[in-house]
């Protein structure tokens, strides 16, 4: 299932082991096989055949590669070693402002027929975000959490755009948007109950109305109700702000759709012009010009032979014969000389590229 990314330059081989899909990339240098190939994997893994970053293969078979080595057997031995000693994913680096997790085994995003556009990696619906500590006051016990991307409304191509995932301290954002709300601490004992008699406690235990009434007087519950009201108000305020942004978002969405339509038209025009340019370049190639010169020289030669036959049959005067015959022969020899010269140029060009 090896995929040819660029002919005679780059190849990709997906490989699965222990529910882990690894893409083995094989890059052939310009002087291959005199130079050794560059073999890398994605995502980075931990294995004794990999470098410290877990990206490039440092197997002795690759490091000692010669022009007599069999690259196919080297790749097969690499796969066999991965089967015997399965690799593990390398820790994700947090040095970038945004983290994207590439789903293993999925091909990169197609560029919609544009060979000059780089591929865009698809995004996962579920991304693991590492919580980074900004100040010493943030609890070090919070290491990571997984958040699911909410279902976005269908906006055509906009729904396929990736969502940036911040890697900065998220504890402040969590407290603002309501996620991860911390309940008030439940005390070990309730001083209010110590003042009640045994009969009152028994009645409270037997009658839910009395228990509920006592429960509603707890300061912890009052704090939860207050926090809930504040949260509802903040959500309503945020919803109103979002509604105010809806016209602007719709206008920008329409602009993107118009630009996408313009891009489609420009793509179609570009492909037509590329096709026309290819046809013109084919018709004006050296081999095509040589074939036309050869046909034209043959036609001029036939015309000169016809003039000579007419003269031998007495159909033309000698003066007309001399002028017409010399003209046709001159054209014939000029075309043949040009055709031979062009053939020499083509041969020299082919020999230069071969060397």
From TrEMBL:
It is a peripheral membrane protein. Keywords: Endosome, Protein transport, Transport. It is found in: Late endosome membrane. SUPFAM superfamilies: Endosomal sorting complex assembly domain, UBC-like. Residues 267-355 form the VPS37 C-terminal domain. One of its GO terms (cellular component) is cytosol. InterPro entries: ESCRT_assembly_dom, Helix_hairpin_bin_sf, Mod_r, UBQ-conjugating_enzyme/RWD. PROSITE patterns: VPS37_C. Its main location: membrane. GO terms for biological process: protein targeting to membrane; protein targeting to vacuole; ubiquitin-dependent protein catabolic process via the multivesicular body sorting pathway. It holds the Pfam family Mod_r. Component of the ESCRT-I complex, a regulator of vesicular trafficking process. Required for the sorting of endocytic ubiquitinated cargos into multivesicular bodies. May be involved in cell growth and differentiation. Belongs to the VPS37 family. This is VPS37A subunit of ESCRT-I. It comes from Myotis lucifugus (Little brown bat). The gene is VPS37A.
């Amino acid at each position: 299932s090896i995929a040819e990314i660029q002919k005679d330059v780059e190849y990709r081989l997906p490989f699965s082991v222990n529910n882990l899909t690894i893409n083995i990339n094989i890059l052939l240098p310009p002087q291959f096989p005199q130079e050794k190939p560059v073999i890398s994997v994605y995502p980075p893994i931990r294995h004794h055949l990999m470098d410290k970053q877990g990206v490039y293969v440092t197997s002795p078979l690759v490091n000692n590669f010669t022009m007599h080595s069999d690259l196919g057997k080297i790749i097969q031995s690499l796969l066999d070693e991965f089967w015997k000693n399965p690799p593990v994913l390398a820790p994700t680096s947090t040095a970038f402002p945004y983290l994207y997790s590439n789903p293993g085994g999925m091909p990169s995003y197609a560029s919609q027929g544009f060979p000059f556009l780089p591929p865009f990696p698809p995004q996962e619906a579920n991304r693991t975000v590492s919580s980074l500590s900004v100040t010493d006051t943030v609890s070090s016990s919070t290491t990571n959490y997984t958040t699911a991307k909410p279902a976005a409304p269908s906006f055509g191509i906009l729904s396929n755009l990736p969502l940036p995932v911040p890697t900065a301290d998220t504890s402040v954002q969590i407290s603002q948007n309501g996620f991860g709300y911390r309940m008030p601490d439940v005390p070990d004992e309730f001083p209010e109950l110590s003042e009640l008699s045994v009969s009152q406690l028994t009645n409270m235990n037997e009658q839910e109305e009395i228990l509920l009434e006592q429960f509603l007087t707890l300061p912890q519950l009052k704090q939860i109700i207050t926090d809930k009201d504040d949260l509802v108000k903040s959500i309503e305020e945020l919803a109103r702000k979002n509604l105010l942004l809806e016209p602007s978002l719709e206008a920008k969405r329409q602009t993107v759709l118009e630009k996408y339509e313009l891009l489609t038209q420009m793509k179609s025009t570009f492909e037509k012009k590329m096709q026309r340019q290819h046809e013109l370049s084919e018709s004006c190639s050296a081999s095509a010009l040589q074939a036309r010169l050869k046909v034209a020289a043959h036609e001029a030669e036939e015309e000169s032979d016809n003039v000579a036959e007419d003269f031998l049959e007495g159909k033309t005067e000698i003066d007309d014969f001399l002028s017409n015959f010399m003209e046709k022969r001159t054209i014939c020899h000029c075309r043949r000389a040009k055709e031979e010269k062009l053939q020499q140029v083509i041969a020299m060009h082919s020999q230069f590229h071969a060397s």
